[in-house]
Amino acid sequence: MPYLTVHDTRLYYEDAGTGKPVLFLHGWGTSGRVWGAQLPEFAAEHRVVVPDWRGCGRSDHPATSNDVDGVVTDLIALIGALDLDRPVVVGSSVGGVFGTELALRRPDLVGGVVAVDSPGYWPAQGMDLPAIMSAIRGDRAGFATAWVANWYAPGTSPALVDWTVRQILDSSTFADDQFAQFRTYDPRPSLPGLRVPIHYLHGELDAEIPVAVAEDCAARTPGATVTVIPGSGHLPHQERPAEFNAALRAVLGRLRTTV
């Protein structure tokens, strides 16, 4: 199994295909497995790299550096170690925050960003992060079960919801430290200075980060646009994989002509 040790932490990753690289980043508490409908599809034309970031999935679960800075630092090391030539970073939810911050800090390393139902500015959206943090500590399993059901659009397979919950319960509790950081996180002041092309791909029915958030971010970001996936909630790559893949393929095609 492919592992890469960065900053004393073993990171699991999958690496398939050849061509312009695409780096897929999962959201909080899950793993690279959420991109199962994308890896084989895009590996036919691209080099596709799908890591489990620290604290999640098959990667190590250290007690340190689980915040945005730590994960972005890991990504910088991973890009260098795997010799990825300015990959397009496709990040879901918190993964989109990592991709956006990576592009803001190291635009020389990134060919483009596709923020999937991300990035959020949670307190300004009215999300009560202290209450979420307290609920997770008090009853992690119960809270995750109730919360994750709200991520998906009505009618989503219960098996998909249950599988997502199981991934979260298998992840490190130290990854929950990100919620403390997100109490003050707001990317909007930095977006006008973003020097990397970014596109916002968003589920129409996302109840966690509404489409209006993506539209707000895009309006502040030079050249940014938004694509809405009809009928999808917070995780369109899992809920509507065919529609998502078609939209992502179109975005990657546009990025090839601008980068």
TrEMBL record:
Keyword S-adenosyl-L-methionine belongs to the record: no
Tree of life domain: Bacteria
SUPFAM superfamilies the record matches: alpha/beta-Hydrolases
Domain AB hydrolase-1: 22-247
MF (Gene Ontology): hydrolase activity
Keywords (A to Z) from UniProt: Hydrolase
UniProt keyword annotation of Hydrolase present: yes
GO CC term (a single one): membrane
Name of the protein: Alpha/beta hydrolase
